[in-house]
Design the sequence.
């Protein structure tokens, strides 16, 4: 449905040329939800704007349903592309009513429908997002969640082949964002509309997407199904950005890695051989903290430095042989600071990947920021 090949976009800044997007390639199948995930400045929004025709790439091609939109000497302007787009700011027109906002794309199209057909199309779009009955309300009188739905209805009213969403939930409060996440997922599945979504929120990406491309420095670092990215990251950067993790450097031996004052038995990336440098990736929710030992494999003694109650779990930081490891425990567990504990690292949930020199920020600093 959507094919992007070798996309490149450069901006000119005071410090010189900035390569915002470099050799980005991906394919989105018909009716699937595809997410561009990454930190600020990684090129995800620039890529989306190239898809929309709001930016003109210097290299690469963009094809939608077999039609070349950009590349090969051709550039289709935005208003001639069969797309709908929702911006981060929603871009709702404050001087218009709800009905007028949704009807606008139809009225400015090359073949504007009649009044009755416009009313029918607007009614259908508003019903899809749960705003029926609000047609006459001034747009500024809507809540934040309603404005987000209005922007989505306006993008869908023309029934485009491709829907582009640029961090549409980032301006909502946490609980509303979770509810809208569910609504958006169900709407996309029901309409089976091909969708490209941009976000820096890994929880949104994992929840909404059929496939995710993690971007870094203008390139796609890894693309795949959410479950695969989480369980089998190709690099420390991807492992850190897609979920929480503790990273432990060590030397590879047969079947494991030397770390934590002993040997951690784990799955090894195919690129690792005995003697190589590796990083252990430990997901906090996979580790088990106990007040007494069980004699399990990969069980290490340590001192509990922090046990913060977060409702559904205790967020723990354990000092093991001078190394801090983040783990989670049951919220009713009887654990206290400075207590001697035992941490089990289940073998099936421990992964070692090549150490490319990248490091996340320090664990202690990260925890202090989370605690405010």
Sequence:
């Amino acid at each position: 449905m959507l094919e992007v090949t070798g996309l490149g976009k450069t901006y000119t800044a005071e410090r010189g040329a900035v390569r915002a997007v470099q050799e980005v390639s991906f394919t989105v199948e018909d009716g699937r939800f595809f997410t561009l995930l990454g930190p600020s400045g990684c090129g995800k929004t620039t890529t989306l704007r190239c898809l929309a025709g709001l930016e003109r790439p210097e290299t690469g091609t963009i094809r939608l349903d077999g039609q070349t939109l950009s590349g090969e000497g051709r550039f289709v302007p935005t208003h001639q592309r069969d797309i709908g787009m929702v911006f981060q700011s929603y871009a709702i027109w404050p001087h218009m009513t709800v009905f007028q906002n949704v009807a606008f794309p139809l009225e400015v199209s090359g073949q504007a429908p009649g009044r009755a057909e416009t009313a029918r199309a607007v009614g259908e779009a508003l019903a899809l997002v749960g705003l029926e009955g609000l047609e006459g309300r001034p747009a500024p009188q809507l809540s934040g969640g309603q404005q987000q739905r209005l922007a989505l209805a306006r993008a869908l009213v023309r029934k485009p082949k491709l829907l582009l969403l640029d961090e549409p939930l980032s301006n909502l409060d946490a609980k509303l964002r979770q509810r809208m996440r569910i609504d958006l997922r169900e709407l996309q599945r029901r309409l089976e509309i091909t969708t490209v979504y941009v976000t820096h929120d890994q929880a949104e990406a994992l929840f909404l997407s059929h496939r995710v491309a993690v971007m870094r420095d203008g390139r796609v670092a890894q693309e795949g199904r959410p479950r695969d990215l989480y369980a089998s990251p190709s690099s420390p950067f991807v492992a850190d950005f897609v979920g929480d993790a503790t990273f432990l450097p060590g030397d590879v031996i047969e079947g494991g890695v030397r770390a934590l004052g002993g040997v951690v038995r784990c799955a090894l990336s195919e690129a690792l051989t005995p003697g190589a440098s590796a990083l252990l990736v430990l997901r906090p929710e996979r580790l088990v903290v106990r007040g007494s030992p069980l004699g399990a494999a990969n069980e290490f003694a340590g001192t509990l430095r922090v046990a913060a109650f977060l409702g559904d779990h205790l967020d723990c930081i354990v000092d093991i042989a001078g190394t801090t490891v983040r783990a989670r425990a049951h919220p009713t567990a009887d654990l206290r600071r400075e207590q001697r504990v035992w941490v089990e690292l289940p073998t099936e949930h421990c992964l070692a990947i090549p150490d490319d020199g990248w490091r996340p920020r320090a664990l202690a600093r990260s925890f202090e920021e989370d605690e405010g």
